[in-house]
Amino acid sequence: MDLHGIGPSGAARLLVEVGDITRFPNRAHFASWNGTAPIDASFGEQVRHRLSRAGNRQINRVLHIMATVQLRNPTDGRAYFDRKKAAGKTSMEAMRALKRRLSDIVYRCMINDAVATAAGPGGYRGTPTGFSVTDPHPQAGSSEKSLPGPAATQDRTLLPMVF
């Protein structure tokens, strides 16, 4: 959620759909999987690329929303889009290029997070050392420990029955 344009639902969608980011050997494979890798649509002297309609549509939608949010605000994404437009690209071509760039940024961010969490116990950053849910001998707090023996029974006096 540190990336501009990714909210809680977008971050959750990325985590659920991508799963283990390390299954993608590089950013090009990730872009091909999410549908932001350009497809050659050249003919004759005209060299063009178009956005792929293949790939994971949910992730592509998250990246599209991220790109739209960045275009609405003065961000690095907006500056990149404006540079592409100034270079002679159409709006759709500049948007395709921005989505591919955002795909690379998301990939790099997820790889960095995976590397950071791989070193920490329990799979979460900030988890104290010596505590892990996956530890073969998990530590139990005082409220989770069983009692040392059976509970002592107390004799009860019966109340007389009234008829």
Automatic annotation (TrEMBL):
Indicate the segments forming the Transposase IS116/IS110/IS902 C-terminal domain, all copies: 2-80
Entry-linked InterPro entries? Transpos_IS110 (IPR047650), Transposase_20 (IPR003346)
Cross-referenced Pfam families? Transposase_20
Q: Where is this region: Disordered?
A: 128-154
Please give the name of this protein.
Answer: Transposase IS116/IS110/IS902 C-terminal domain-containing protein
| Source species | Micromonospora qiuiae
